[in-house]
Amino acid sequence: MAASPSTARAINDRLALRLLQQEGPLTAGRLKELTGLSRPTVADLVERLTAAGLIEVAGEARAQRRGPNARLYGIVAGRAHLAALDVRTEGVALAVSDLVGGVLAEASLPIADDTGTGPAVEQAVALVERTAKEAGADRLHTVGIGAPGLIDPATGELRDSTGLPQWHRRLVAVLQERLPEARVSVENETNLAALAEQRDGAARDRDTFVLLWLGHGTGAAVILDGTLRRGASGGTGEIGFLPVPGTRGLPSATDCAGGFHSLAGAAAVAQLAAECGVVPEPGAGPEAAGAVRAAVSAHGSAAHTRFLDVLADRVAVGVASVVALLDPGCVVLGGEIGQAGGEALASRVHDRLTAMSPLPVEVRPSTLGGGAVLRGALLTARDHAQDELFGVPEH
């Protein structure tokens, strides 16, 4: 059965909007080429979307021949405002953007360990409200949050986790209360980092890969055939609990001490650096990442080489388990430590995997590092908002 005229128009509108999301401003002629629609049909949809306030003239394309320049049409950036939060154990980072992802304001706030749940939540919410005001956003359409811990796949809520601050879970609820018109969603931080690396970072050419997060904690995110995999309970990638050799015991259901976290978490990496005599670069951020960066820039010092070699041995243990189970073909070393190690650490891990596993795998350093979580939260918020405003079914 042929689609009705109204259905056909809706399909064409969604196709054009999706192309403008992916490609940026386009001329009517370019839209015609990419959609395969006729010139009159493209003219009608441009007029219709402009009247609806969804697209606008964003400039002119340089003419390839004599005559006036063609108009470029783009999504109306100010149609909605978004916020993205990276919620860590030690504080919050925030970005407010327009509908096409242009960052309008950024801020961060440290939150001390001894700050109570109520005061911590109030400080974080006040930061969101203040930064949104600075960005000129009268209201926020969508708020995307990245946080450590498990996300319940049935409810989309952050599950209560031992060892994580109670204010993390409370923050999501309070933001929804204070911003009743906004869509507030939360996702595991490592999953968001993987989505960002896939869209804008080291895995742009990969439909299947694993991101190994090496930062304050350890985690993994699994992208298979272009889709993020969360598992039955939302726990795919909880690699910190993986039992590994080289630790003094086994992890428990409530504590990952004795697991992979005890080999490659920030505290373990900082301790290893001290044992090897590696001093972190001053002002280089977290101690563990600063030590890795100092070792990479030392160019051949025996102590620094030993530190990187032992660190690569440890990381390879976790990566080898992932490779044996999933055969992803590519592993990205993310987080502050993965980014600090760069190609020096990635190549060492690759060499060890080549000797340990018959399965071919590339090991790549993150190109986004610690900023990947905030970038992933912003991309996810933008996708949700555009899909809702444009009537495009969610991915």
Automatic annotation (TrEMBL):
InterPro entries annotated for this entry? ArsR-like_HTH (IPR011991), ATPase_NBD (IPR043129), HTH_MarR-typ (IPR000835), ROK (IPR000600), WH-like_DNA-bd_sf (IPR036388), WH_DNA-bd_sf (IPR036390)
HTH marR-type domain residues = 16-65
User: Which Gene3D superfamilies does its entry note?
Assistant: 3.30.420.40, Winged helix-like DNA-binding domain superfamily/Winged helix DNA-binding domain
**Any Pfam family hit:** ROK
Q: Which family does it belong to?
A: Belongs to the ROK (NagC/XylR) family.
What protein name applies here?
Answer: ROK family transcriptional regulator
Organism for this UniProt entry: Streptomyces prasinosporus
